[in-house]
Amino acid sequence: MGDPSLLPVAEQRATADERLRATAAAYALLMPAHHVFGGVTAARLWGLPLPAALEQEEALVIARPNGSTRGRARGTRHVAFDAARLRVTELEGLRLLTPLATTLMLARDLEHERLVHVVDALLTPSTRYPGLRLPRRPQVTREALRRMLGDAKSLRGAGALRAALADARVGVDSRFESIARRTIVLAGLPEPAVHPLVVIDGMRLRPDLGYPELKIAIEYEGEGHLSPKQWAIDIDRYERLEAAGWIVVRITKAHLARAGASCVRRVRAAIARRS
After folding, report:
1. Which of 134, 169, 175 is closest to 9 using CA atoms?
2. Each residue of 55-72: pLDDT tens digit?
3. Is 1 exposed, middle or buried (0-12, 13-18, 19+ CB in 10 A)?
4. Sequence-ordered list of residues with C-beta below 8 angstroms from that of 153, at least 6 positions apart, any chain
5. Which of 12, 124, 208, 228 has CA 20 to 30 A from 146's CA?
6. Residue 160 and residue 264: Cα distance in Å, rounded?
7. Model pTM?
């Protein structure tokens, strides 16, 4: 296979996820009936967006009902959950917490901004979001999640998840769209809309992010934009937007490094041009 670090980021993640699924499948053959995969392990199995360090997590997180017997297998980390309120399901033969229960468990420890990215993934109806293996899209509506949190207010993590829901938005196509949006907001700039509808000569376009009232489109250029076909589509879309008087701000993963300083500078300059 060669050195995994030399692979593109998407392939590195796919390789790590394949190893995880193989390890989980092997452990599942020996796992007690009352144990399920939870926490970071369940989140990775569902394809939820996590920090890079957690995507490489080696230990399997095993969830067990409160008061039940704890396992001691090497390479595992055990956490307890309220089986009367958090549901269990199956994914390709593996028993694990549902996406919502998994997210509530993540909310116990995950930093706020990272948790916002996860909630964005739960809320999105997009079928283009890479890597998600959720049972449906959206996995949950904002209103349904708010009701669930109302019923689960006493559970650990509910408060953090409620705060993340307040900052989450519907419709993102990737984790990096979430990162870009939150980077812009945290810099004190106006919050951009997610995939605002732009109609030009009868053609419906939806930039990743944007300020329709200012005619500013913000496009995240991820690895999925590197194919010749997508590149040609992107060039045509950008030309149409610019011909109609829009400013197109194109950003990459590199622009989001160092707290997104380059991304913020580019967006701020575009807004200044409209002043």
Report:
1. 175
2. 877 799 999 999 998 887
3. exposed
4. 159
5. 208
6. 26
7. 0.90
